[in-house]
Specification:
The structure is a homodimer. By secondary structure, chain A is mainly alpha-helical. Chain A has 15 helices and two strands. The longest helix of chain A is centred in the last third of the chain and has 28 residues.
């Protein structure tokens, strides 16, 4: 696991440098917006989704610089969603990654614009020829990320999450909610490596299946940490889901049931990766990292 | 002008039908989000930007169905920006197009998600092969719209607009603000016809110049209507800019100066269109419509 953590840190640093170059400089008449975009995107997070893009792309010998651009676009979408989810009208969160949330550090109007502009930038990055020389591949990435981020993906999931407050959801409803809210971006993360590598349909299907297990496992672990994690390590307030009366996977499965499900998801994920042999090592390790992490 | 208004109405109706088919149906677990997306995008507006895409595309014999898809993507971006600009943290507007604004009709969290999901959908539409068979063209459209909508375009302009409340801006600062806030989408509207038609650089430059004159004229007319328009025709509250102490073009130029500038912009716009001959008729007519409209 120490080897994986080193690899995660190295990849996160390379991604950070790329984001620094892609985000607008803190100059010009709209410098405040630019500063807030950088505040919301730089210097934080495990960069798990970009790591998955790179680990998937590696299976098809895709140059790392291309995978990193896709990872950057995906991370821009993820960061925009955090900024908007933290707004007073949504989760009304005060801290994120150990710092004031974007609307607390700047103001609410700026935070709304930050999210909007980060989303635009993500698609600008994907459409750029530097991402892949074949425009068909770039269009496929744009379409995939747009679907994963939009009403049939992340935004739809966030809508279900808002509606879930105080409601008593069934397990399958909670799973659907999570598949949309967090699962759709995980799926894009894992599948985009195959898109970059112009892999065949069976390979894409296997990576999608792996991603779906990983996304659900990530959410179960997140819920476990929300119940029993360390706020200092998390960099945000914990116990928020319980306080808001949200139906979580852990509430629906019970603590033992949740841990049992994690083990089942791990087995299923490993089966999906079998066809890729030793090259899928980082994907196997990241699964174990996700279900054992302390933050 | 009656002929143009008929053409505008015909095009608006065709665009409406396309948007109806592109927007998610009001069904499924996130039906509320889908309903709010449709509320924010359907049944309103002059659809000026999509009309410009079509009028530009016509110069290069682009099939109207392709231009209409680009127009739909652009209109989705425009509609998302209206939803977010109307939010309490931004302009706090109660009515839009004669109806309650999206956050008043639904709620604030839903309105934020509506804007986010409409933006994703816009890029999904552009990346789809139905928009143009050549993926290089589709990537160019994605990149162009992302730049026009993002920090270097519309979002940057909205940031300047928020900062302008109570500030005394110079004329060139107000012009920059408007070039970003409204001008960038007008420019994309006019230029995208040339992108679809794979026109040469000189033709693209001429359409950009026309768009810049049109965008500024549109804004001056908007400011004039805000001072002396009919709220019943506008479908929104007027006099808001003055009340908010915003520096408008009309405040900076004076009423006579503003009307003089409109005449100069018209001359300049006509010069830009000369190379296109009679085929540019709708673009000439739309300029006159924009500066003489009563709403």
């Amino acid at each position: 696991m120490a080897e994986l953590e080193r690899l995660l840190a190295t990849e996160a640093e390379a991604l950070e440098q790329l984001l620094v170059s892609l985000l607008p400089a803190e100059t010009g008449p709209a410098a405040k917006l630019h500063a807030a975009m950088r505040y919301a995107s730089l210097g934080g997070g495990k960069r798990l989704r970009p790591f998955l893009v790179g680990a998937g792309a590696r299976l098809f010998d895709v140059p790392p610089a291309r995978a990193r651009r896709v990872g950057a676009a995906l991370e821009l979408i993820h960061c925009y969603s955090l900024v908007h989810d933290d707004l007073p009208a949504m989760d009304d969160a005060a801290t994120r990654r150990g710092r004031p949330t974007c609307h607390r550090q700047f103001d609410e109007a700026t935070a709304i614009l930050v999210g909007d502009a980060l989303q635009s930038l993500a698609f600008e990055v994907l459409a750029d020829p530097a991402t892949h020389p074949d425009p068909e591949v770039r269009c496929s990435l744009v379409e995939g990320l747009a679907k994963a981020a939009g009403a049939a993906g992340m935004c739809g999931g966030q809508q279900l999450d808002l509606a879930a407050e105080g409601a008593s959801l069934q397990l399958d409803q909670i799973i659907l909610l999570q598949q949309l809210k967090t699962g759709a971006l995980f799926r894009f993360a894992c599948e985009s490596g195959a898109v970059l590598g112009q892999a065949d349909a069976a390979e894409r299907t296997a990576l999608r299946a792996f991603a779906d297990d990983l996304g659900l496992a990530f959410q179960i672990k997140d819920d476990l940490l929300d119940v029993a994690g360390d706020p200092a390590l998390a960099g945000k307030e914990l116990g928020q889901d319980q306080a808001a009366g949200k139906a979580t996977l852990v509430a629906a499965l019970g603590l033992d049931g949740a841990r049992q499900r994690l083990a089942e998801l791990r087995q299923s994920a490993l089966v999906s990766l079998e066809r890729f042999g030793p090259a899928a090592g980082p994907l196997r390790q990241i699964f174990d990292f996700v279900i054992t992490r302390a933050y």
